[in-house]
Write a structure and sequence with these properties.
The chain has 306 residues and is α/β, with parallel strands linked by helices. It is 25% helix and 26% strand.
């Protein structure tokens, strides 16, 4: 059975200033999502599930969903702060959804096979999708999940600091924790982050970071649902509390419920957080096309596994 790709596309885009999930970055007007799905199809994925908000459904389907007719199966899940979850009769009032783990949970019922999770506005590279598909097809079990680890030097910005979840691993490349590091940048050629003491602390160029590219077994949905029910009860008076993927992953690793294999990608990661990022990403895709890694237009050539 081919794995599924779950794409989290319900983000508000407030810092970016618009619906960045449908913004063109490729030389023929392609979006980042299109490149991710192109890579996923070629890697062997068989279905895509988008998590979006109802208010963006029409423009999203017109711009994005219509691109994939006849190429790969597409389904949609909707994330709102009160998206129905079995076991919760009433949600506390809030203005935003409950975070990335909640976004995964709303796709329960649409996914019955091993699946990967990515952000809609991040470019993860060809090799990452190949490694993930191979893991999901051959090695994913209820006990063993995965995460793509990106070399931190391939995820930095030349235009300011970034925050990254730095992976801590054992000798077998199994994840032990994801440690959030803030305001990462190079200082005199060395990568540093700002510690709790306000001082810069060094990181190694080859340290691995999480960019929210995970591989899960569908049996995990039931555990996530139970934990989310408890999270909502505990955080009913905290309207900004969010249920993030690393939160439940960390809990499950510590409890021994799962182990997470870190799969290394040497690909360059690109993301669009602010409008100023867009020209940089556009230039990067133009270069990838010039190098022959993608056709232009992207869908002008038949993909390998369509």
């Amino acid at each position: 059975m081919k794995p599924t790709l779950l794409i989290l596309a319900a983000g508000m885009g407030s810092r970016y200033g618009g619906l960045k999930q449908v913004d063109a970055v490729g030389p023929a007007g392609e979006t980042i999502i299109e490149y991710s799905i192109y890579d996923a199809i070629n890697a062997g994925f068989g279905k895509v599930v988008f998590v979006i908000r109802k208010e963006i459904e029409v423009p999203f389907k017109e711009k994005i969903g219509s691109q994939f007719e006849g190429k790969i199966a597409i389904e949609y899940a909707f994330q709102e702060f009160d998206s129905p979850i079995e076991g919760i009769s009433e949600f506390p009032e809030r203005l935003k959804p409950w975070g990335t783990a909640h976004a995964v949970l709303v796709a329960d019922g649409l996914i019955n096979e091993p699946f990967a999770v990515i952000n809609a506005d991040d470019y993860y590279g060809i090799d990452g999708f190949k490694s993930m598909a191979n893991f999901l097809i051959n090695d994913c079990t209820p006990k063993t999940q995965s995460m793509i680890g990106y070399v931190i030097s391939n995820t930095l910005s030349d235009h300011g600091t970034v925050n990254r979840g730095v992976a801590a691993m054992d000798d077998h490349h199994m994840l032990t924790a994801v440690n959030e590091r803030l305001k990462i940048k190079r200082i005199d050629g060395v990568i540093h982050y700002d510690g709790d003491d306000g001082q810069p602390h060094p990181l190694k160029d080859k340290d691995l970071v999480s960019m929210n590219f995970w591989g899960f077994h569908p049996s995990l949905f039931e555990d996530i649902r139970k934990d989310f029910i408890q999270f909502v009860a505990d955080q009913k008076d905290h309207p900004k509390a969010e249920f993030f993927i690393p939160l439940f992953v960390d809990n499950y690793i510590n409890s021994g419920r799962i182990e997470v294999k870190v799969l290394v990608s040497e690909d360059r990661w690109y993301g669009v957080t602010y409008q100023e990022d867009k020209p940089i990403v556009q230039k990067a895709f133009s270069k990838l096309v010039a190098e022959g890694r993608y056709p232009a237009p992207l869908w002008g050539a038949k993909v390998a596994n369509a």
